[in-house]
Amino acid sequence: MINRTIQPEIRNIESVNIPKTQNINLPNGIPLHIINGGIHNVAKIDLIIKAGSIHSSHKLEAPLTSLMLNEGTAKLTAKQIAETFDFYGAHFTPKAEKDYSFAGMVSLNKHLERTLPVFTEIISESTFPEKEFETLKQRRKQNFLVDSKKTSFLARQEFFKQLFGEKHPYGKATTEELYNTITRDNVAAFFDRKYHSGNFELVVSGNVSDKEIKLISDSFGNLPIMLSGKTFTDNLETNVGIFDIKKDDAVQTSIRLGFKTINKYHYDYTGLKVLVTLLGGFFGSRLMKNIREEKGYTYGVHSMLVSLQETGYIAVATDVKSEFTDETVNEILNEMYRLKTEPVSNKELDLVKNYMMGELLQMFDGPFACSDSFIASQHFGFGFSYYERLIDEILTIDTAKLQRLANNYFESDSLVIVKAGNFK
Amino acid sequence: MIIFEKFELSNGLKVIVNTDKTTPLVAFNLLYNVGSRDENHEKTGFAHLFEHLMFEGSTNIPDYDTPLQNAGGENNAFTNTNITNYYITIPKENLETAFWLESDRMNELAFSQEKLDIQKNVVIEEFKQRYLNQPYGDWYLKIRPLAYKKHPYQWATIGKDISHIENATLQDVKDFFYAHYAPNNAVLSVSGNITIEEIKTLAEKWFGDIPKRNVPVRNLETEPRQEEERTLTTEGNVPLNAIFKAYHMCNRLHPHYYATDLISDILSNGKSSRLVQRLVKEKKLFSDINAYITGDTDEGLFIISGNLINGVSYTDAEQAIVEELEELMHNEVSTDELDKVINKVEATLVYSEINSLNRAMSLAFFELLGNASLINEEAGKYRNVTASEIKTVAQELFRKTNCSTLYYKSKN
Known about the structure:
The structure holds two protein chains of two kinds. By secondary structure, chain A is of the alpha+beta class. Chain A has helices spanning about 60-70, 80-85, 110-125, 130-145, 150-165, 175-180, 185-195, 210-220, 270-280, 285-295, 325-340, 345-365, 365-380, 385-395, 400-410; strands at about 20-25, 30-35, 40-50, 90-95, 100-110, 200-205, 240-245, 250-260, 300-305, 310-320, 415-420. Chain A is globular, with a radius of gyration of 23 Å. The mean pLDDT of chain A is about 95. Chain B has two domains: about 5-205, CATH 3.30.830.10; about 230-410, Cytochrome Bc1 Complex, Chain A, domain 1 (2-Layer Sandwich), CATH 3.30.830. In chain B, helix 9 (about 255-270) packs across helix 15 and helix 11 (about 315-330) crosses helix 15. By secondary structure, chain B is α+β, with helices and mostly antiparallel strands. In chain B, the strands form two sheets. In chain B, strands 1-2-6-3-5-4 form a six-stranded mixed sheet, sandwiched between helices. In chain B, strands 7-11-8-10-9 form a five-stranded mixed sheet, with helices on both faces. Chain B has helices spanning about 45-55, 65-70, 95-105, 115-130, 140-145, 160-165, 170-180, 195-205, 255-270, 275-280, 315-330, 335-355, 355-370, 380-385, 385-395; strands spanning about 5-10, 15-20, 25-30, 75-80, 85-90, 185-190, 230-235, 240-250, 285-295, 300-310, 405-410. The interface between A and B is large, with 76 and 81 residues.
């Protein structure tokens, strides 16, 4: 009989195979990064655009521009664009975030000659037809009204509003009023200002040969040369405190709790990443163990460290049984406090290290995963080098450093705590 | 084309092996042939509650997650009406830990009242988070009993009611385990940089001595053909009126399954699809509309769900949907349109084969359906669907009396 009580021998993961990117500048200056790999004849093309909401004067400019890209160009109607992508089975995914916007396409290599010209056209020659704009705006407004009934949405909006201040694009909340004031011309002007070669960066991944690279280089390399402009934003202003949003028919309370902190540019960021993972970044984390597995107050609780261009932040998010709202907030604060006052055991640190190394293997498993990881770090100009630093940090960090980081960065006097629901 | 090999242990565990030399990770997928359709109608939500308990420790391993995380592995699970599926991705070097963990919890769980009580609370919060604390979140719970009168698909996997979960006893849990968790009721599928010999050795070592168990023969009531239109109106604190229409469709192995799936694509897959182009963009009746199939193993549902634009009447909105369905019943789709949806399915199948975990999951699921090799016939079966078959299937599918409609009205 085998002894089932003993775990088979495990080996610690000590390295991750990070591929080399091939980096080219197209004739018009657009940087192109190629991550070649995989056995399937599929190409993923991602355009990073310096056109997030931080670059806009109206909160909805960036997201609506992004969603309007495939709604018509000088040569193609919205329907023709949709027909082409659908006919060749290509997926087009636009998205706008706080700092950047993105336009991505996944296509079978064999159809690239058909899909690529449409992709290039919509990111450079969109015309924003009024009729399509009105339909989209109406739909988005209705979706916003649905979201406004969710405690998680209400809590998140309030959290950013208090954390970054309403004047700053990071903190501005979406309102119905904003949908009533945005015009087609706002969006078209934002597109003209921001969607051009000076603000583009390209990442191509998949099983791509010289033939595909040439197709891509030719189509993007022909866009006119432009220079990136500067953006000026207001200062970030945090309102520290506890903010309650009452929703009588809610059956759970959504809690968002956090504070501003360093971003990826700071040398302590990688260490802080390990600390925040230990706190609430995975199933075996302190918060999950305490609040879900020991107390059963919630289905899930997570902490995250997020890096933006102008700041970073740490946030804890959970939806809990209404009557345990305050207990949960206290438990989250206790867990943060404990990391300052008690050193983490080596055993627990090893667990987090092994978990994080496994996660990194996933983040570099195949060309598309590599490409997503690359993009997340390339916002800050680091490419894959950030992950090399992170791996180094995970392998070397000790319990003393974790405690020092907790004391330096878990600041209890700058906390923003938001509760949305039907609680006492 | 996914290349694989398979073998069976003497206790009935089926094992499928797919080699992929490009990845440092192994996907390990263990599927149990039990879902919410196997529940007693007075004890619903059980298959899913049980899935939670599977993470609370087994006889020889008190803590499931820690050893896995120490091995750099990640795991999760899902339960649906048909199956319960557990999966792990783990660095190749540490693969044996996956065998150790999964075989011990197949062998026997460490049942305890305390753990049951905590997971009951967690599942109740999941119930609230997903279904009750979301606008329209409970529509699925409402439409199932309208469409099904006999078959256990009449309740959703989360359960009919929170009280069923609250009332679960330790004895219920034990009975459920011994009735359904057995090597002869499971399929293990492994994908990664592995060989069949390695997997044979590991499977034999860790799963080989788990006894075969008496799994009750599934004998579900079949749903009689629906012969009358059914409707239900409900009101909620939601901003807009919504409509949900459910039509009974064929089972997963029926030859018409592929035509049915393509019909849902013609209607709403992608921006060029009919419902999006005509009802959202041209007529401006809906802010969102979707058509899709549940993909159930037994006879499932074809669902159309839409949010009405503020001010649009239910009569106009519903009439527009019905006209679209009638068009499919009366006119054949053009070659171009059919090619489009088939191309799209083909591309989606290729995209889904890229990820090793997806491959492992699909192989296990098709093996359960009858044979893992069916996975490689999918593209061809879609390719063979003709315009006239689509018309024939639409005529049976969209009969008026085959439909259950839920009107989800805004109170405001």
